[in-house]
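P.,

For your records, the input lines for the assembly:
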Amino acid sequence: MANTKAGKKEDGSAPTGGVPTMSADNGRRALLRNGLLGGAAFLVSQITRPFVEAYAQAPELDRPGHEHVEAHGGMTTVGTVDHARNGFDPSVILTDWDTGRSGETSDGKRLREFTLTAIDKEIEIAPGLFFPAWTYNGRVPGPTIRVTEGDRVRIHFVNGGSHPHTIHFHGIHSAEMDGVPNFGRGMINPGEGFTYEFDAFPFGSHLYHCHAIPLKRHIHKGLYGSFIVDPDPALHPEHKEAAMSRLLGAPENDRWQELVMVMNGFDTNFDDENEVYAANTIAHAYMKRPIHIERDRPVRIYLSNMVEFDLVNSFHLHANFFDYYDHGTTLTPTHRTIDTVMQCQAQRGILEFSFEGFEPGQYMFHAHQSEFAELGWMSLFEVVA
Amino acid sequence: MSERSLGMPTRARWLLAVLPLGLVVGLVWFYLATDPLEPLGASAPPVEELTVERSVIDDRGFHLHVRADGSEPMRIAQVQVDGAYWEFDLEPAGALARLESAWVHIPYPWVEGETHLVSLVTGSGLIFEHEIPVAIATPTFTLSRLLAFALLGLYVGVVPVSLGLLFYPYLKTLGARGLQFLLALTIGLLAFLLVDTLQEGLELAAAAAAAFQAQAVVWLAAALTFLGLLVAGRRSGQPRGAALAYFLALGIGLHNLGEGLAIGAAFAVGEVALGSFLVIGFTLHNITEGIGIAAPLTQRRSAFWTFVGLAALAGLPAVLGTWFGAFAYAPQWAALFLGIGAGAILQVIVEVAAYLSSLASQDERAGNWWSFTNLAGVATGIVVMYLTAFLVSV
Ligand SMILES: [Cu+2]
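Structure tokens returned:
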């Protein structure tokens, strides 16, 4: 009852010192009265003591224990999110590659065309908890754009939202195509559109996001997504095997179980702190529906961090270790055999690991910031033989 | 025969009242139907308010009694405890309409003696926090505990008032001037209690759901109680002697109800150290009250049973207070009681002052009401109460 405290005083120590005098008119009588009052007070405190002590110990009351409280299931969001109403499902987002419409440029290059529309949309980020998001194509994170190194990428951006937005792609491109205010086309007003065009380079696990100002607000409202550029094996003869395994559609890639995860957070009460943390938006989504992993096939995760207001995010895998490719721009690991990786905002990388030979069962992975884990960024792999 | 004097039949007179009433209803309907605020673009999101009125802690976890207080129904979507989403159960389930209340049951393995923070997350992502300063199991309602709290109330209320009344034989030996000093002292202590009670009431009111307008309720309850008691007390002339003493006892009793409340609630939220300290502090404090109650009786002989009655009236409400505070606490009700207490105390101040002034006018030697003796008495009363309260609030 802290907010509704009935107690007169905040705290206290034992009463000490003399008892105040009633009046100072007669010293002897005052002394007598003091003695009387002091004696009475002492008497009362003696009478009360056993009562107070009995309460302090309260032996007949049960103590809370884990036998009473479900220790495992206790820490969770309650209920289920209506993914159909949201229009996207985190379990589908994991493997939902958008390779665009294929075509050919006049100079014979392969062309990949996409349309991204900014849409204001209220989304359910935890059961019953709604966030007034800004989205690309109605989903957070936006579509996972996946192309191959050297492709011509053409993005038709339509701003169907209520605020000016842009798309800023991580990658190498001209200043014109940077998607930032005041350069090139700059901010795209509501109802307007713009086509961003560039060659996909370098290969790696990248990002795109709105770069309109105020930047913090535009990003944490949900305008971001993964932009994966697969390596062209012909350009990397020294690591052909690795490049082939990354190339979507190649037989070498087929045996991999590839997943995309954007670590994000939501500040629901505008206090510049997130109330919900997740991988792919929905708190505890993969706790409630664990991600199925076939034990004998290797796993590759395209991981990125789009959390706002916090310096870093992290990924920790239980009972296993992974190789890590920082930014995904190398074909040999930048870290080998680690079980935790830290990412600054907009940092990303590729994780490769395998549960081959492992006992089937549920294996956790989560942010190794306990706070993030307890606020939703906590997940499970269901490894099946 | 008034209808005839108005020149109208009874039915027509009745119509005269119905017509404006009908117009009022029509006006409200028109306002709701046409929505005159619409051009102002008043489509702001609903303001959500949630008040935690009571918290119970037991071996199954936390149980919060919450009341919604916004313009639109609100939904508790999720609950965080100590910054982690936690399982919970709403009773009744579903959205809360304005001023509707519900219990939020949270099975949480709390740590005894430690602080926990419960955050209630609404559907729109607003957060209402409730701190549990010292986690300790809430006393449940059992006969033995009821008796224990009764005993506690007796220690705080009846015992010190009785101790104060024991000064009666000594008070009788005081002369007219001594009596006036004593009455002035009573006014001083009552003035202190008035301020204290009002302050306490307003503080509690601030913790209640805003729609109750509990702060206004405190003032209104005080004003109505004051007027009611004044009228009741003066039906057979200005109260003096035993009657005045009884009014004193009633006013002080209502104040002691508030003190009992504070102690009971302190035990209920686990602040046992505070609770026991309040017991000792209030006990000291209340001895003075007993002396004040005895003051109007010194001019005549009084039966033993009068003193028993006075002690009961001034002291027993503390028992009710501890029960209420420990088992059935709600800030808006507590605020109401304290408002009533303040009104009762104000009435006694007025009556004691009137009595003192009539004494002063009878007694030429003692001078008028604005004597130095009386000023010293009032000042002493306030200072004594302040000092004992200071002890309580260390
Ligand atoms: Cu934007």
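Two observations worth noting. Helices of chain A lie at 27-57, 83-86, 90-93, 215-220, 240-246, 251-254, 285-288, 370-374. The longest helix of chain A spans residues 27-57.

Regards
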